């Protein structure tokens, strides 16, 4: 692991010593997501309630800058200027290179239609079928680790050849049994689990950004 990336993980543990038990799994999750991005794949994310908000939050940190500038490359900039030199200048100045992340919690018309017409527990699995490709990674967030709609999405993810990173509480669960890597923060109450999920996924986002966009030396 690069020094600049490892620094973020070390800082996380320094700030939250109780997360020391998760260090290996956080590193493992980073490597899985990194491998997906290296091969032009993407991250799919889902959760319920506060974890749905976390799904949106994570996508927001990955799809634009978190801390580090992410200018678009010259090849794309030249193509934009060719299409529209005037508007192109503004686009080139303001566009930021994304790390592709799709929150499956975002598609309100689709999710409500599917739940109304078919089955609420399959709502994320249905989107997994539509958006997911072999080689992607699914970040499955559940404080209990047993949310049925998240577990169903995990089952389909494995069938599609999509790797699974679980983000749960401390107990073994259906998600931890299905996941390739499961980050089990050492808490058992829902709000306390959620309080520890945030620094974990912020760390993952920073590690990925530092790898691809340099970060702070």
Keywords:
2 domains; 5-stranded parallel beta sheet; 10 helices; alpha/beta
**Number of strand elements:** 5
Overall shape: it is globular
Question: What's the tally of helices?
Answer: 10
Question: How much is the average pLDDT?
Answer: 96
Spans where pLDDT lies below 50 across 5 or more residues: none
Radius of gyration: 18 Å
Task: Provide the domain count.
Answer: 2
Beta-strand percentage range: 5-15%
Q: What is the CATH topology descriptor of the largest domain?
A: Rossmann fold
SSE series: HHEHHHEHHEHEHEH
CATH class of the largest domain: Alpha Beta
CATH architecture classification name of the largest domain:
3-Layer(aba) Sandwich
Strand order in the sheet with the most strands: 2-1-3-4-5
Question: What's the structural blueprint in terms of helices and strands?
Answer:
Elements: H1 3-15, H2 23-38, E1 43-46, H3 50-62, H4 74-83, H5 85-94, E2 101-103, H6 108-117, H7 123-131, E3 137-141, H8 148-160, E4 163-168, H9 174-178, E5 181-184, H10 190-213
Parallel strand pairs: 1-2, 1-3, 3-4, 4-5
């Amino acid at each position: 692991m690069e020094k600049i990336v490892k620094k973020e993980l070390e800082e996380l543990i320094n700030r939250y010593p109780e997360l020391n038990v998760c260090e290996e799994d956080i590193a493992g999750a980073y490597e899985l997501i990194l491998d997906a991005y290296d091969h032009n794949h993407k991250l799919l994310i889902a959760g319920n309630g506060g974890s749905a908000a976390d799904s949106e939050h994570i996508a927001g940190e990955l799809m634009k800058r978190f801390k580090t500038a992410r200018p678009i490359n010259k090849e794309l900039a030249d193509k934009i200027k060719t299409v529209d030199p005037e508007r192109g200048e503004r686009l080139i100045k303001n566009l930021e290179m994304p790390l592709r992340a799709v929150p499956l919690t975002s598609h309100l018309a689709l999710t409500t239609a599917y739940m109304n017409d078919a089955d609420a527990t399959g709502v994320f699995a249905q989107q997994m079928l539509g958006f997911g490709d072999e080689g992607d990674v699914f970040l499955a967030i559940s404080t209990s680790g047993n949310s049925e709609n998240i577990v169903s999405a995990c089952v389909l993810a494995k069938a599609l050849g999509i790797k699974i990173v679980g983000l749960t509480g401390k107990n073994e669960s259906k998600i931890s049994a299905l996941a390739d890597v499961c980050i089990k923060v050492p808490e058992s109450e829902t709000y306390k689990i959620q309080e520890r999920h945030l620094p974990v996924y912020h760390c993952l986002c920073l590690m990925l950004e530092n790898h691809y966009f340099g970060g702070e030396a």
